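FIELD: query
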Amino acid sequence: MQSCIEEYELIKSKQSIHFKTVKSFCAYHGFSHQNFMKIYHRYKQNPDIQSLVPQKRGPKFKTRRVDLEIEEKIVSLRLVGNNRYEIREILRKKFIVTHCETTIYNIFKRHGLNKLTKVEKQEKGKIIMQKIGELVHIDCHQLSQGITIAEPNQTYYLLGLIDGYSRLAWVEVLENCADEYSTPLM
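FIELD: result
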């Protein structure tokens, strides 16, 4: 490549005996004019043999990585059971720099923490109640007209409640489900 650079400078000064134009020079050697010019200018800035070797593209290694202190904090928060959105909010409160959820997820992947184990999934899905009335499941169902003998044209509703802790059920028949204070029939 050094001989090509010397030949190029001869072409520029119109002293080359082999080539009249840079286009014919590049065609003969089989590289594009743009790539040759990139190598030539790099060599002119730093006249060293290493500047003639093709350079690695993209960002330099670890130049865009998260600080090790923050990465360790992310890993410790994940081991406790936080997800990437919760971790982002915790980091936003503690540190000035905030990292997006994708960066946090990539740290999970790098440490093998991106998937919950079966036990962690079961633990995350548990709803823990400690007394009656903490969690109630509710449903309302419309009964068909004519189901009662008293008023065949009236529509009635069944309101059902099940306590999540004791599994105790309660059902009421209502005349109107839209009112807040509907009166039960029975």
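FIELD: remark
The chain has a mean pLDDT of 82.
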